[in-house]
Design goal:
Order of helices and strands: EHEHEHHHHHEHEHHHEHEHEHEHEHHHHH
Strand content: 5-15%
Structural class: alpha/beta
CATH class of the largest domain: Alpha Beta
Family: Belongs to the SIMIBI class G3E GTPase family. ArgK/MeaB subfamily.
Number of helices: 20
Bound molecules: guanosine-5'-triphosphate
Number of strands: 10
GO molecular function, one term: GTPase activity
Catalytic activity: GTP + H2O = GDP + phosphate + H(+)
CATH architecture of the largest domain: 3-Layer(aba) Sandwich
Number of domains: 4
CATH superfamily of the largest domain: P-loop containing nucleotide triphosphate hydrolases
Radius of gyration: 26 Å
Keywords: GTP-binding, Hydrolase, Nucleotide-binding
CATH topology of the largest domain: Rossmann fold
Shape: globular
InterPro entries: GTPase_ArgK, P-loop_NTPase
Length: 436
Amino acid sequence: MFFLLFRVSANRSELTTLVFFVHNKMKIPCLLLRFPRCYFSRTYFMNFGFTSRADFLGLESPGPAHRCHTKWICSSNTLRRELCQQAAPELQAEELSDREQRLIDRLYQGLIQGHRACLAESITLIESTQSRKKKVAQVLLQKVLSYHREQEKLNQGKPLAFRVGLSGPPGAGKSTFIECFGKMLTERNHKVSVLAVDPSSSTSGGSLLGDKTRMTELSRDMNAYIRPSPTSGTLGGVTRTTNEAILLCEGGGYDVVLVETVGVGQSEFAVADMVDMFILLLPPAGGDELQGIKRGIIEMADLVAINKADGDLVVPARRIQAEYVSAMKLLRKRSKVWRPKVMRISAKTGEGISEMWDKMAEFRDLMLSSGELLAKRRRQQKVWMWNLIQENMLQHFRAHLAVKDKIPLLEEKVLTGVLSPGLAADVLLKAFKDGL
Ligand SMILES: Nc1nc2c(ncn2[C@@H]2O[C@H](COP(=O)(O)OP(=O)(O)OP(=O)(O)O)[C@@H](O)[C@H]2O)c(=O)[nH]1
């Protein structure tokens, strides 16, 4: 990247005008080198026509002046990070109070040093619905993201963590599996975090996955971190924070991030869209007992694990495995390098768990070497951005004064066949546009 460096002492307004001219005409990011005690307010820059901080980066030596508004860059290392963050200038536009800055610094430092308490506090911050806290959380997240990018660069561009989604109907043995699987991984020097997505919590106000005493042994393990699902919010809200929590966990050095969801709703589709590998855990039962499982979700699975393949259940587990093997042959191929596998395991006895991890590692290596993993992650980012925009826009639309009262009436007219759905939508959209 090109940028011009200016050093400012005397006649700074003339210089700033010149810098702005260069920046504006030549579209070159400019760097302004400043001296201590040389204070520039945001208004000062705005007066010269700069519209965002990323237009213009300031370098200052730490000193009495470092508390001034343009506290952007204090060392060449942070300078590099700040340049990387140009893509998200709006997040830095809001000035943080000293207290907020201290909070971010404390959480960030604690997080990257692997302190579980700081990770927990950071996730609580991103789950906050209070607008100010949300902003602070986003600044923290940006910081963690740039740390991520640096670490990934050091790791030759390879992802820092393996993101795994786990879904299955209630009683399939998810907690027993995670306990057994997680312990095996920590014994092999992995750091494991478990995030639960439980959409039922948004309607019941309680967390199904979180309330129970689950995974007692794993939760005592210093190399594991278990986070129950947030207790409020829409599915989109819950999954948005889960997405961000994944990044925080990775920043905290967790190299295996497990996202668990109950396989009876929409959450598993959302989870499948935020992980590298999606696993479906099923009990050795078929037909009626698995009615809650949606067909579509089987198509999303990269691996199906038939659990409880022990004692009397070995025979039905074998039968179910054979059924799934043939059913999955009929599914559309989603990857050039991987065909979904069906395995038998027992979370109770631990049988098959190590082999399952070997298969998972094989999947990750194949996906990485073929470039499919990174392509998938990039695609997921875009999907998520649009999902969130859609959800927010729809909320905004439904709550808008110009359409709010009209919706029930128009819905009724569509239901009774008085109005076509297309026409009703046109009426509402026009009212919305006119009311903007
Ligand atoms: N025989 C046998 N029983 C198991 C196995 N894994 C889990 N179970 C039993 O199945 C029951 C449900 O297990 P959980 O781990 O609580 O299942 P879950 O999927 O987390 O259930 P929810 O929390 O309701 O979603 C418990 O009684 C477990 O002891 C297994 O491998 N073999």
